Amino acid sequence: MKLKNKRWLLFSLCIFVLIALIAVFPRNPAHDQFLKYLSTFSSWPIVILILVLVFLFMFKESISKLIIKLKVRTPQGYEIGSQEAKPLDKTAIEEIKGKYEAEKKGISDFFWMIIEFEKMIRVLFMSQFMILKNLSTSKINNVDVPKTFIEENIYKNIYLKEGGNPNYVFENYLNYLKTTGTIVEEPANNILMLRITLKGEIFLRYCAISNYTENIFIPR
Fold this sequence. Notes:
The chain folds into 2 domains: 3-72, no CATH class; 121-216, Winged helix-like DNA-binding domain superfamily/Winged helix DNA-binding domain (Arc Repressor Mutant, subunit A, Orthogonal Bundle). The protein contains 9 helices and 5 strands. It has helices spanning 3-24, 29-41, 44-58, 60-69, 90-123, 126-140, 147-160, 170-179, 198-209; strands at residues 72-73, 79-80, 145-146, 183-188, 191-196. The strands form 2 sheets. It has a 3-stranded antiparallel β-sheet with strand order 3-5-4. A hairpin with a 2-residue loop joins strand 4 (183-188) and strand 5 (191-196). Helix 6 (126-140) packs antiparallel against helix 7.
């Protein structure tokens, strides 16, 4: 016998025993008290509520199936109903795999970029960081920065004057920023110009978000 049938049988048995006791012992004071409670709870709202609960309990499986199949159309024209799972074809599966691999690669690239930025912060001179900021400002103002300007105003007047190694020549000093991909050197009207790259801009944003100021870099 199913558990559901056992519950109904037990409930029916309790009701039958209760009715039988009232019939056999009609003058029992406990029965009068029970009848008072029954008369209190027999008002029509309570009865309707009990009947609704009994109905929902008895036919819950049928009601559940009906709700699943039910579709409602909103005033805006949208249809709300059950979602039928459809098997994916090979093309859809390959597309999902491709998106997953791309997202996984994107997370990996971002992780290694953070590691690279942190390494740069620990070996970059303050003056080299100033070059990136100068080029970023010039890019915003749409102004080209000649390579000679950086050499005279930052390399010589800041790096060397602040005690930088004179054997660390300007080309090598500048080449570190080139190899990290944060700046590029391009000719314009027979003059070599320096421009910050997208990676350089991202590096500056990372420093700003991390509250890294010029003082965190090697002082020169």
